[in-house]
């Protein structure tokens, strides 16, 4: 899959489910619930035990799978070889960027400042993860796009059903959601996570 195709899928999807499972089985269930609810792009975090099993189990699903909580180049390469189509970090790492570029995989680093964003752009990042987004107002995106109109931002952390539309209307190319899914799954199981995923997708297109 070509890099520009992956980026198009990410921006078309609008909603990226950030899956943190207490076990591989939970991560697989959560991912399938998100997909059943209409979310087709999923970030599987490396905080999940035996995450390679999750990639393997979902290999034939119609889902764009990426890897999150990637802290070093070794993990990035492991994720890419496991099947990740994009790599996400909570911070920008100069050693991760070349690995992703080498394999033609988008790298979405977490950034909070203009300086960090410009540096990430210079190393080839096409989408910047604003993280944690709950430290900012949605209007921050327009402020960034003033001097840097070409920066594409995906806020993650603190996105919920009440503010997702505001973030998207303010210029976010997509949003990352996660903790809500885990809470829904813990409280009501698989179908509760499916229903919440449906609600997020409905909000993303209104």
Molecular shape: globular
Q: Structural class, judged by helices and strands? A: alpha/beta
CATH classification class: Alpha Beta
The average pLDDT is 96
- Let me know the CATH homologous superfamily: Aldolase class I
Helix content: 40-55%
For the largest beta sheet, what order do the strands appear in spatially?
Answer: 3-2-1-8
Annotation field: number of helices: 9
Q: Which fold name corresponds to the CATH topology?
A: TIM Barrel
Helix-strand pattern? HEHEHEHEHEHEHEHEH
Number of strands: 8
Radius of gyration: 16 Å
Quaternary organization: single chain
Summed up, the domain count is: 1
For the biggest sheet, the summary is: 4 strands, parallel
Unreliable stretches (pLDDT < 50, length at least 5) are none
Terminal-residue CA separation: 30 Å
**β content, as a range?**
15-25%
Tell me which CATH architecture applies here.
Alpha-Beta Barrel
Pathway: Carbohydrate acid metabolism
Keywords: Carbohydrate metabolism, Lyase
Family: Belongs to the KHG/KDPG aldolase family.
Subunit structure: Homotrimer.
């Amino acid at each position: 899959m070509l890099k520009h195709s992956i980026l198009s899928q990410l921006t078309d999807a609008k909603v990226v489910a950030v899956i943190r499972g207490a076990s591989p089985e939970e991560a697989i269930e959560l991912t399938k619930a998100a997909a059943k609810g209409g979310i087709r792009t999923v970030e599987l975090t490396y905080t999940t035990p035996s995450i390679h099993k999750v990639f393997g189990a979902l290999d034939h699903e119609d889902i764009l799978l990426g890897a999150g909580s990637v802290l070093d180049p070794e993990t990035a390469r492991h994720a890419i070889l496991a099947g990740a189509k994009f790599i996400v970090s909570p911070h920008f790492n100069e050693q991760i960027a070349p690995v992703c570029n080498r394999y033609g995989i988008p790298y979405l680093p977490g950034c909070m400042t203009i300086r960090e964003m410009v540096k990430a752009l210079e190393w080839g990042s096409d989408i910047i993860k604003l993280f944690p987004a709950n430290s900012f107002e949605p209007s921050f995106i327009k402020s960034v796009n003033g001097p840097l109109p070409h920066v594409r931002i995906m806020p993650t952390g603190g996105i919920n059903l009440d503010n997702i539309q505001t973030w998207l209307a303010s210029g976010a190319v997509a949003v990352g959601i996660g903790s809500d899914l885990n809470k829904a799954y813990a409280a009501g199981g698989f179908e509760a996570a499916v229903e919440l995923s449906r609600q997020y997708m409905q909000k993303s297109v209104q």
